Amino acid sequence: MPLQYMNNRSDRPEKPDREGTVRDDEGSRQGIDAAPWWQTGVVYQIYPRSFQDSNGDGVGDLPGITARLDHLAGLGVDAIWVSPFYPSPMKDFGYDVSDYTDVDPLFGTLGDFDRLLAAAHERGIAMIVDWVPNHTSDQHPWFLASRAGRDGPKRDWYVWRDAKPDGSLPNNWLSSFGGPAWTWDPRTRQFYLHSFLKEQPDLNWRNPDVRRAMLGTLEFWLERGVDGFRIDVAHAVMKDPDLRDNPPAPAGSRVLHKDVGPYGTQLHLYDRGHADTHGVYREVRRLLDRYGGTRQRVSIGEIHLFEPADLVSYYGADLDELHMPFNFTLLSVPWSAEAVRRTVDAMEAALPRGAWPNWVLGNHDESRVASRVGPAAARSAMLLLLTLRGTPTLYYGDELGMEDVPVPPELAQDPWGKNVPGLGLGRDPQRAPMPWDGSSNAGFTRTGVRPWLPLPPDAATRSVEAQTASPDSMLALTRSLLAMRRAHPALQRGSYRPVSDAPAGVFAYQRELGRDHLLVLVNFESGPALVRLAGQIHRSLVSTHGAPVVRDGTCALRPHEGVVLERG
Ligand code: GLC
Known about the structure:
Layout: H1 37-40, E1 43-46, H2 62-67, H3 69-75, E2 79-82, H4 110-122, E3 126-131, H5 141-148, E4 160-161, E5 182-185, E6 190-193, H6 208-224, E7 228-231, H7 277-292, E8 298-301, H8 308-311, E9 324-325, H9 337-350, E10 358-360, H10 369-373, H11 375-385, E11 391-395, H12 415-419, H13 459-462, H14 464-468, H15 474-487, H16 489-493, E12 495-498, E13 506-513, E14 516-523, E15 529-532, E16 538-543, E17 549-551, E18 554-557, E19 562-567
Parallel strand pairs: 1-2, 1-11, 2-3, 3-7, 7-8, 8-9, 10-11
Antiparallel strand pairs: 4-6, 5-6, 12-13, 13-14, 14-19, 15-18, 16-19, 17-18
Helix pairs in contact: 6-7
Bound molecules: alpha-D-glucopyranose.
């Protein structure tokens, strides 16, 4: 049953009906009814530029999202996370914010935001917004004031440093998007720090006024009724106060999950992740808890740490920091049963007691999962994502099996790809407009308008409309996986136990809660596999390839097939 929301703000019920009390006669639901919505639910990320254009300028917007909410309700997701829609010069397409408490005219108005939020809530869909605490736009009034003079009250809101006596940079830190992390300001004769573009100066979170002002921006959206925040580069906010040089990365080591050029040649010991970062998120959490009542407001942090032990520190020593540090470990593993199982088990083992896991297979910064693992494996990748223990985040279009869309250099938009060429770092291919139907611009924007990025070349067959008509489509599969997840307490809340004697190339695991016992089998190989099912009667729930083939106590998996079986 969908969550029932009333309008936003203070008249919202504190406790929607899905979080009702545990009923004694339904033992297997125990633990679900008590679980917060963000643990049992599924998050869907919308990159607003690319979802739906409503005003014919070729760029998606908030009224466009509102108009497409029925697609999301029909799909069966529980929350949307909308990437930034705040006023911005768009140097990094909205991740350079020049006003944290408004909507960029490109995306609409605050009124459009309120209508979107209310319409989402009416459909039982929670709304998570992006929060970009590490840096503002260089056009933010705070930075304009900061750079106006060395003695101004906002000078210390950003990180300014003198040149070294020989005129060189304050230290060896690099920008993620290429070049040094310092830019010289000729007028005030100091460098300012920017972990990303020079148009994205880093805020000085050691200044209490910055902390207060930024927490105030959270309150603004909490008061409007948002259900939580995705926190951009969450671990970057606190740096080494002495700004020590980063050491070089040992030869052959990989600092990030992909080759990012010179940025990957340093160990990022001092330019992010200082221990004081934890204090920031304890404060954020206290604020969210204040607004939470019995329906929690969630914090999900973007943290590029691939060692489970490092990542889980952001849950907080007493689980008093982020509700979920985004778990990107599956973005970087070779797509094999053994590697994926090792990754899942390592994360499960590292989780502090009571911490809730989460899984991600794609976002606006990463090559699409269907391109990474290949179209044949994309279906079982979706099954995996929606059956692992923890909150899944789906990237828009992955329910259609969208692939990366190559963008010719003259149409390239993303500054990362332009600044650090030759490594395939440009993020345009994964940001292609969503194909909705068979019309000339796939329903994304009006006919005759040029979308901001090229549409998928296969838009007509890939579209929501085309796939709705086909029972074997990726869209149909995603819908049935989400429906199955909703119907099975074991999938939402149950335990995870890997099966140790699965054949090579098959990742098998059990999910159990009360009387609900499920077995998940995923064949990662391009050949068939036979799995003997120990002693129990198994009923098939879902397969990526039509009906699962279960006969005489054996499940015959086809290449790249994933199945979910229920133990009777
Ligand atoms: C995060 C965002 C990315 C952005 C960067 C700088 O990594 O996901 O899109 O470019 O932060 O804000």
